[in-house]
């Protein structure tokens, strides 16, 4: 799968189960009416169940200048969730999930379906709000390294 180029995102949640954010690339648009996103989260990560328990997530698409943020949310540096969130500027839209203010785009979603496939949770979210940031090259992950969509 390392040969499959993908945009890099930080997916976040907040609610009764707690706050969490992780870097992911397994994302796709499912429908535009209603706007629906699909995300995949590794089940082996101890706290990824918080997304399902909170029933909300925000999908934040990163620009090339946000590689350090991506690395922090992927676990590099072994930062706590609180320290990871301190690296960015966050707001909320409708669901209460943290939205990265300077992301290329953020999709605030309510979970409408989940299931498990192999090692991952597959989560479908209905988009309730969108925040569009400044246009620019997106952060891409390919061959186990970061690239720009302008490369």
Overall geometric form: globular
Strand content: over 45%
The biggest beta sheet reads: 7 strands, antiparallel
The number of helical elements comes to 3
Computed CA radius of gyration, to the nearest angstrom: 14 Å
What's the CATH superfamily, by name?
Electron Transport, Fmn-binding Protein, Chain A
Structural domain tally: 1
The side-by-side strand order for the widest beta sheet comes to: 3-2-6-9-10-5-4
CATH T-level fold name: Pnp Oxidase, Chain A
Please tell me the overall pLDDT. Answer: 93
What sequence of helices (H) and strands (E) makes up the elements?
EEEEEHEHHEEEEEE
In the CATH scheme, the class would be Mainly Beta
Write down how many β-strands occur, each being a DSSP E stretch of 2 or more residues. 12
Q: What's the helical proportion of residues?
A: 10-25%
Termini separation (Å)?
Answer: 20 Å
CATH architecture: Roll
- Unreliable spans are none
The secondary structure category is: mainly beta
Summarize, please.
The protein has 151 residues and is mainly β. Helix content is 13%, strand content 46%. The protein has a single domain (6-148), classed as Electron Transport, Fmn-binding Protein, Chain A (Pnp Oxidase, Chain A).
